[in-house]
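[worker-b] picked up task from shared queue
[worker-b] task type: protein-ligand structure
[worker-b] ligand name resolved to 2-keto 3 deoxy 6 phospho gluconate; SMILES cross-checked against name lookup, match
[worker-b] sequence length check passed
[worker-b] input payload:
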Amino acid sequence: MTPEQQSQKTRALCELAPVIPVLVVGDATRAEGLATALVAGGLPVLEVTLRTPAALQVIGEMSKVPGGHVGAGTVLTPDDAKRAKDAGASFAVSPGATERLVRACEDIGLPLLPGAVTASEVMRAMEMGFSMLKFFPAEAAGGAKSLKSLAGPLPQVSFCPTGGVTLQNAPDYLALPNVICVGGSWIAPDADVAAGDWAAIESRARDARTLR
Ligand SMILES: O=C(O)C(=O)C[C@H](O)[C@H](O)COP(=O)(O)O
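[worker-b] inference finished, payload out:
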């Protein structure tokens, strides 16, 4: 799957809802309830970070939830990409982009949403064939103002800004012509996931859904 085709796929996913919840889940028994609450709240595209030992199992469990599209986040290496795909991930998100990772995703047919923040990083990703990128770390890298500036010379690239995005600042990003959706962990905080407070998470998802 070429980077062009990968970006077509990730763009279509990003168009499904204004927010992709970024999930850090340490306990796979929480996976089904969490994914069900998010899908019910109107956020069907989920990013499960590979930051916990349970993450691959979480991806497997969440992939069974009807209506959801489950991807792996924090995908750094070819091995991460392969394990994520084998676990059932339908896309991968990376904070950056390396040639090895890009080649691996091409080889195994896993759509990659690679990260970039500077003009040179964006241009390099464009040279590889990508037109849909993650802008990470969004707030620390200058926020909506920075992204707006990139739209001037590089209007053909669209972004999913992630990192420091909240319900409060998300509208600033979503108002930009080069932003399709945002990503954020605020939808499913650790405490609610640990407590299994699915009502609170579904309610936050509903609030996020109305952002666009
Ligand atoms: O794990 C990854 O692949 C990342 O790129 C980092 C996440 O996207 C951010 O940690 C989410 O940011 P917050 O919403 O500020 O918590």
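[worker-b] attaching auto-annotations
[worker-b] The pocket of 2-keto 3 deoxy 6 phospho gluconate is lined by residues 22, 49, 73-74, 93, 95, 136, 162-165, 183-186 (CB under 6 Å).
[worker-b] releasing lock
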